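Work Package 4 report. The design task specified in the project plan requires that, given a folded chain encoded as structure tokens, an amino acid be chosen for each position. We show below one input record used in the internal validation round.
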């Protein structure tokens, strides 16, 4: 999955092993280059218009290739003290906003159906940060 933006990058910095590859704009901040080199993350520098082709949103000069989101089973999260259950949520922006709010309230898990629901994608990740 490709995710993008500086806020998403700042979240992923806490565990650089999640980042498989980074695509950077030539004019991105030097601290990002330093982080990438120190953590030995595979990267590619490219023109901004090429980054524009990789994602549909505002990338702010940074696009990251990460593993797809891994879902937990219902049995794994039933022991959590605070859960939210969502049904028929189809808008990734709404899902991201719910995740962000749930995090602020200390919710430990969100239950979503396998069918007829939005899954975790790049938009959800960007909005949730």
């Amino acid at each position: 999955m490709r995710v993008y933006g500086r806020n998403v990058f700042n979240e992923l910095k806490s565990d650089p092993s999640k980042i498989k590859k980074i695509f950077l704009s030539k004019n991105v901040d030097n601290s990002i280059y330093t982080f990438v080199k120190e953590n030995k993350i595979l990267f590619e520098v490219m023109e901004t218009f090429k980054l524009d082709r990789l994602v549909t949103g505002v990338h702010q000069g940074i696009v990251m290739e990460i593993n797809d989101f891994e879902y937990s089973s219902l049995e794994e999260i039933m022991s959590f003290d605070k859960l939210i259950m969502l049904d028929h949520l189809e808008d990734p922006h709404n899902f991201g906003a719910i995740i962000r709010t749930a995090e602020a309230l200390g919710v430990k898990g969100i239950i979503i159906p396998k069918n007829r629901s939005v899954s975790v994608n790049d938009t959800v990740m960007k909005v949730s940060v």
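The two ends are 16 Å apart (CA to CA). Validation will be extended to a larger panel in the next phase.
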